[in-house]
Structure formats: structure tokens, C-alpha cells
Automatic annotation (TrEMBL):
One Pfam entry name: Helicase_C
Regions that span the bilayer: none
Region (Disordered): 387-460
Lineage, top ranks: Bacteria, Pseudomonadati, Pseudomonadota, Alphaproteobacteria, Sphingomonadales
InterPro entries membership: DEAD/DEAH_box_helicase_dom, DEAD/DEAH_RhlB, DEAD_box_RNA_helicase, Helicase_ATP-bd, Helicase_C-like, P-loop_NTPase, RNA_helicase_DEAD_Q_motif
Domain Helicase C-terminal: 220-385
Keyword set, alphabetical order: ATP-binding, Helicase, Hydrolase, Nucleotide-binding
Sequence motif Q motif, location on chain: 3-31
Official protein name in the record: DEAD/DEAH box helicase
Amino acid sequence: MTIQFSDLGLSQPVMQALDMQGYKEPTPIQAQAIPPVLEGRDLLGIAQTGTGKTAAFMLPSIDNLRKADNQIPFKSCRMLVLAPTRELAGQIAQSAKDYGALAGLKVHSIVGGTSVNKDRNKLHRGCDILVATPGRLLDLIDQKAFNLSGVEILILDEADQMLDLGFIHALRRISELVPSDRQTLFFSATMPKQIKELVGKYCHDPVTVSVTPAATTAERIDQYLFMVQQDEKQSLLELMLSEKHEVPGKFERVLIFTRTKHGADRIVKKLSQVGIPANAIHGNKSQPQRERALSEFKRAKTPILVATDVAARGIDIPGVSHVINYELPNVPEQYVHRIGRTARAGADGVAIAFCAEDERAYLKDINKQTDATFERLPLPDNFRAVVEGVGPTKPAPKQQRQRVNPKPRGASAERGDGAKGGRGRGGSKPGGPRRSGGPKQGGGQRRGGGRGRSQGSSQG
Ligand code: AMP
């Protein structure tokens, strides 16, 4: 029998908010986490974005705050949520407002790259729920504009990402500043040694809930692979996005990953030179630039977004049809996070990896350490000539697609380019991201997001 929200012990206002969100059933992490959190237990959640973990910690915590009914503390908060990036902090704050819409709680968020003075004023009277990036939070604490003495519930979200961003000292400091009798909910997608140490520091006898093995790629994502030279990647991308080379799935929103900020900007610039509008999102973009890029992507106004890992981690955008790994990540788990941006909330998704000769080792690691299996796609006809600018291309006939290494799902592929025991998405005709004016060669439409001096960073 499937577990219903009504089985979990949530209050009426929270149930109504869920109704307003249109959620019918709890996700596995919600079903497992909500009852012990309502009982006041500490929790260790091993889960990545897309599993419904935000609601898993937010819903019972809202109820716990309501039940305790304590006053809002001066220059402090009752519940503190720490998140690695501005984008994630913004999303969590929005969830707190959505889920707590009928609970009458005061929610604020503070992140780096915005005015500290405004934050200071905002926090003067305290709040029920504060969502913060660690850097900005400590800034305000050091300025005596805020303290953690009122914290009843502490949540660390994407703790492994916070460590990757160098927040270890900040987290150690914060652990000394929160009251010892608080409740702690600790979330991480992966469990390296340093995270285990932090869990020991923060949690008391936690209930552990793990929803997906740390490095398992989502079932509903069909994964494809192009073996392509580094200097051919941009041309291949352009041919795909302009529908001159057919790939599986219909383009709706396309998220492209690069390893570097510079690489992301370069792709956006080159796409714009052939009339394909795209935005970049990475740590060197100012907060307004990032917000605009995300908003245009969400509204499908500019449905192509080029991102680095840090910027994209935790971003929750429904309707990402394709994730393109323009460069393969050197950490296999990052691959899982990247492709997890598609196939969210029950949808299917397509992930396409570009692998150059010097990335074969990364591909092998991804195959070995995750359950990823790829179907290899052929390059366009005359491709080398197209790259060198001396010939046209025509779409590859469907039957030319070759399946390589047709092992069942889960089998590791020796050469790192195994086939997916797939459901044959290969035949579907791609559409194209909706673009104003169409993808004319040399159209050179500029996007606002790709310019501007570097300001701020994604860690608060
Ligand atoms: P998260 O893992 O918290 O980032 O959530 C991923 C997405 O799933 C968000 O868009 C949520 O709004 C959505 N979501 C969370 N819980 C549910 C649920 N029980 N039913 C349907 N969608 C949900």
C-alpha cells in the first residue's frame, strides 16, 4: 500500500499547502523522513536534488515550529537552513514560503553578492525561518547583527557541496554557535569522510534515510554519447541545436555543462554568433545576471543555459528536456548531479555527453562508478568538412545510429562507451528550443546575460 501524506502526521495548514502545490503522494524521502522529524529526531538524509528533499525537511519543521510556538528571537531565527549557493538558498526560501503559506511564519533569506546593510535591517527583528549561505551568515554574526542563540532547528542542505566550496571552517564555526539542544537535519548527496565527521559534530543519534545510492543515474534518463574531438564540439552543438543534426528527444529546455566559467562564456558567445541565443550561469555572474538567466530559462524565453557545476547544483527547473555534457566532469558523482537536472518530477529526460579522446578516462570512471550506460550516436555526415568550414552537412539517417556494447543496464562498459538497454528514444524527432526569430546563421543576436564584469560568486 502506498503511503499518503495523511498517514504522516502533518497538520492541517501544511496539508492544505500541499494541496495548493498539487502534490498527491509523498516521495520516498518524504515518507521516510517526515515521521521521525516530527518526533524531534535528528536526521541524516542521503539524497540529491530532485528527490523532494526540501519538502522532506521543510514540512515537518514548519509543524514543529508551529507546535513549539515560541516567539521570534531578536536578531536571531528559530530555524536556520544553510545552503551552498544563492540559487539553492533562494529556492529553499521560496519553498518555505509556499509550504508555510498558511502557517503564518516569517521567512527570510540572506546570500552573498547582495547588500549587507539590507540584510542587517531585515534581520534586526529576527524571523522564524532563515535560509542562508554560510559566508554571508558569518559576516552578519561577526558584525553582531545576528546570532544563532534562538535556533531550534538547524538544517544543512547539500553539505558535500558546501565542503567543495570551501565552507568547512564556516561549518565548524557555526556548529559551535548553535544551541546544543536544537534539532539537526543534515542532507548530503554523497558521504565522503569529511562529511561523516561533520555529521558526528552536528547530529545526535540521527535517523538515516537514503533514497538513491550516491552515484546512481536516474532510471528515466536516456543517456547518449558522441565521441568527438575537442575542436569539433562547438560545431556539433550548433548543428544539434539548430536541428541540422538530429538527436533523440524534443528540445524544450537545454542545460549545457562545462568545466570552466570561461568555457561557458565562450559557448554562449559562439552560439550567439550563429543566431542561437543562450545564457551562461556561473560564479562570475552578478546576482541579477544569474536571476535573469534562470528566469529566462524557466520561462523558456532563452531555453538554452550554459552552466558550471557549482552554479547548477541544486537548481530546480522543471521541464529540462536535455542535459548536454559539453565536457565530461572529472568526478563521476558530478555526472550524476548534472544529468539529474533533467527527468525531474516524473518526466523523462535525455542526457548527451560529448567525449573527446583525452576525456576517455573520465568516461571510464563514470561507467565504473555509476550505473550509467550510453548509446553512442554517430557524428553528422561530412562533419570534419563542416568543422573546417568547407562543406555542408545533412542529418544522419536514423539507421546509422550504432549501439555499442549492448550490455544490460547496470553492467559496466569496458571501453567506457557501452550501450543503454534502452527504450528506443532514438527515433523521436527533435523539435528545437523555441527561439525568437529562428536560428539564422550569422544572425548574431546578443543576450544580456553573457556580458559584464565578473562580480560576486555563487557561494555567499
Ligand atoms: P527537491 O528535491 O526538494 O529539489 O524537489 C524537487 C521537485 O519535486 C520540486 O520541484 C518540488 O516542487 C517537487 N516535489 C517535491 N515533493 C513532491 C511531491 N510529493 N509530489 C510532487 N512533486 C514534488
